[in-house]
Write a structure and sequence with these properties.
- The chain is an alpha/beta fold and 184 residues long.
- It has five helices and eight strands.
- It is 27% helix and 28% strand.
- Strand 7 and strand 8 form a beta hairpin.
- The radius of gyration is 16 Å and the shape is globular.
- The protein starts with a strand and ends with a strand.
Length: 184
C-alpha cells in the first residue's frame, strides 16, 4: 500500500495559514531545495483541496524561471483535486475526487504505484484525512516566524504518537522534520 504523507510549511507557533508574508516558494536555500527534490522523487501523486489546487494551478504553470523545479515537477505529476464544484480541472494530469475524500484517498493508496501520495496546503482536507486515520507521515518545514493566529495542522482534540524519522536545521533558521505515524 502506498503511503500518504502530509508536507506542510508551518510557522514556529504551528500555523499553516499564510496570513503574513513568512513563506516564499521561490526563496529556498540550496540545501533546502536538495531535500525538497529528494522527497519529490519519492512522490508520484499529489492530492489537493480545491482552493490550494486553484492557487497552484494559477501560479506554478506561469513560472518561466523556476529554479526550484516545482513547476516542471507539477506539470508531470498526477494531481488529484478534492472538489464538488470543479468539473474540469484545466491542468494536465489532474483528476477530480468528488464527495468522499477519505474513500478517494484510500483508493489511491491501494492502487498500483510505488510512490508516495503527498498532500500539501489544503488544511481542511488535511484535517479530514488526519481525523480519518489515513495519514502515514508528516514532513514539516518550520519557519522561524510567530504569526500568532491562523489554522493549525492538527484538528482540535487530535492525539497521535509519532516517530521521528529525520530532523534537519538550515542556516536560514528553517527546520525540516519528518515524522511517521506509529499506527499499524
Amino acid at each position: 500500500m502506498r503511503a500518504l504523507v502530509i508536507t506542510q510549511n508551518i510557522t514556529a507557533d504551528g500555523s499553516v495559514d499564510m496570513l503574513d508574508d513568512w513563506f516564499d516558494p521561490q526563496e529556498q536555500s540550496a540545501e533546502m531545495l536538495e531535500i525538497n527534490r529528494r522527497d519529490s522523487a519519492q512522490c508520484d501523486a499529489l492530492v489537493l483541496g480545491r482552493r490550494t489546487f486553484e492557487a497552484f494551478r494559477g501560479y506554478w504553470p506561469e513560472q518561466t524561471d523556476d529554479r526550484t523545479g516545482v513547476s516542471e515537477e507539477l506539470d508531470g505529476l498526477d494531481k488529484y483535486v478534492v472538489s464538488t464544484t470543479i468539473t474540469d480541472p484545466q491542468w494536465q494530469h489532474s483528476t477530480i475526487i468528488g464527495t468522499d475524500p477519505v474513500a478517494g484517498v484510500e483508493e489511491l493508496k491501494a492502487a498500483p504505484g510505488g510512490g508516495e501520495i503527498v498532500v500539501t496546503g489544503s488544511i481542511s482536507l488535511c484535517h479530514t484525512l488526519i481525523a480519518a486515520g489515513v495519514v502515514d507521515g508528516y514532513r514539516l518545514w518550520t519557519y522561524p516566524y510567530v504569526q500568532g493566529r491562523g489554522r493549525r495542522l492538527f484538528p482540535d482534540g487530535h492525539h497521535a504518537a509519532l516517530r521521528l524519522e529525520e530532523h534537519l536545521a538550515f542556516a536560514t533558521g528553517v527546520t525540516y522534520t519528518h515524522w511517521s505515524t506509529t499506527r499499524t
